[in-house]
Amino acid sequence: MSELERVFKKNKELEKEILLLRGIEKEKKKSIPSYQFSKVTDTILENLFDIEQIIDREKFNNWFDNSLILDEK
């Protein structure tokens, strides 16, 4: 086998390897979803994460439990 044939064969092998690697990279990109911040909805977040709403209502008790006295002036 001449030097030119070996280079040609090596070139073909490298081309195949590049195509294989590109395919793997495309698969990796497809398997990881990405979302634009402005388009993220509650439904998407609920599907991705276990969201638990924690509200400390005591912080608001003084707002809502106060009685207001209104004067007619």
Helix content, binned percent: 55-70%
Distinct helical segment count: 3
Ranges where pLDDT stays below 50 over 5 or more residues in a row are none
What portion of the residues fall into strands of 2 or more residues?
A: under 5%
Mean pLDDT: 80
Oligomer classification: single chain
Helix-strand makeup class = mainly alpha
Q: Tell me about the biggest sheet?
A: none
Rg, please? 32 Å
- Outline: rod-shaped
Number of strands: 0
The topology string of helices and strands comes to HHH
The number of domains is 1
Distance between the termini: 108 Å
Explain this structure.
The protein is mainly α and 73 residues long. It has one domain (3-64). Helices cover 59% and strands 0% of the residues. It has 3 helices and no strands. The chain starts with a helix and ends in a 9-residue tail after the last helix. The mean pLDDT is 80.
